[in-house]
């Protein structure tokens, strides 16, 4: 089965919130969907997130949406693209001269071919998130690379306390800063009726998971879901940039018989 046998629909939305500028960037171009949340002063954060999605977009172009055998996206190609994005951001920071702290989170899903079958590769660095809504309900597929998540994992604070913790925005892993960042990548099966959400922490900082699940489930399509999620967060006076990309699997077609 080839990735061309998977029928997808998607939508995206973003809002500046109460910030002076939008440092979030997004990519919604099959087979890759991603959100990057930039960090750093002045234009550095915006540039970092743009560089990250541009590198992923370049990988899509190199593979080709309708590429034939031998030209499909793989986990190795995806991992290499993320590593190159990290290097690109570091070079950009050097060229700017004073861009200390220039970096970005990135999270997303990519339709890859693994062992001859299409799979979802869920990837992330930082605290931007990936969720999946399916028959079993909403599940967070990514685990925040953040100070408060480490405290939760250690049993020192609860998840409710983490949501309001003063250090909740401090990430422990990001592209462009600190040691070279490795993305967490997990493979999932491709199944009809899956609906994924990729978002920056500006969204999850305003909406509880229960609200996200409700809005995702009630929206008639992916575009409406993304717009309603961002609109709801912005209406509440989001203190940060808010970005959402929603992807849904409409059908998984059987490959045409050979011959």
Task: Summarize this structure briefly.
The protein is α+β, with helices and mostly antiparallel strands. The chain is about 30% helix and about 30% strand. It has one domain (about 5-250): Phosphatase 2c, domain 1 (4-Layer Sandwich), CATH 3.60.40.10.
Notes on the protein architecture:
This protein has helices at residues 44-63, 75-96, 147-153, 159-163, 201-204, 209-218, 222-235; strands at 6-15, 24-29, 32-39, 103-114, 117-125, 129-134, 137-140, 184-189, 195-199, 242-252. With 259 residues, the protein is α+β, with helices and mostly antiparallel strands. The protein has a single domain, classed as PPM-type phosphatase domain (Phosphatase 2c, domain 1), CATH 3.60.40. It has a five-stranded antiparallel β-sheet. Strands 2-3-4-5-8 form a five-stranded antiparallel β-sheet, with helices on one face. Helix 6 (209-218) crosses helix 7. The longest helix is centred in the N-terminal third of the chain and has 22 residues, at 75-96. The two termini are 15 Å apart. 46% of the residues are buried. The mean pLDDT is 87.
């Amino acid at each position: 089965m080839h990735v061309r046998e998977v029928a997808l629909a998607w939508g995206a939305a973003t809002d500046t919130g109460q910030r002076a500028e939008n440092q979030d960037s997004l990519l919604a171009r099959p087979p890759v969907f991603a959100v990057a949340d930039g960090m750093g002063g002045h234009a550095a954060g915006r540039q970092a997130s743009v560089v990250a999605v541009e590198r992923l977009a370049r990988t899509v172009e190199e593979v080709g949406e309708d590429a034939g055998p031998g030209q499909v996206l793989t986990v190795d190609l995806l991992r290499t693209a993320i590593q190159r994005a990290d290097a690109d951001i570091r070079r950009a920071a050097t060229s700017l001269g004073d861009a200390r702290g220039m970096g970005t989170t990135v999270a997303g899903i990519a339709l890859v071919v693994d062992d001859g079958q299409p799979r979802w590769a869920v990837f992330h660095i930082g605290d931007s998130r990936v969720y999946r809504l399916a028959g079993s309900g909403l599940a967070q597929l990514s685990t925040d690379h953040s100070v408060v998540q480490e405290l939760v994992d250690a049993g020192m604070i609860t998840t409710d306390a983490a949501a309001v913790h003063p250090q909740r925005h401090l990430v422990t892993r990001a592209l462009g800063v600190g040691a070279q960042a490795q993305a967490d990548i997990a493979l999932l099966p491709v199944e009809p009726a899956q609906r994924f959400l990729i978002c920056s922490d500006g969204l999850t900082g305003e909406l509880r998971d229960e609200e996200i699940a409700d809005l995702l489930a009630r929206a008639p399509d992916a575009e409406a879901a993304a717009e309603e999620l961002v609109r709801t967060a912005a209406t509440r006076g989001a203190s940060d940039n808010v970005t959402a990309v929603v992807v849904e699997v409409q059908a998984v077609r059987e490959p045409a018989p050979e011959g």
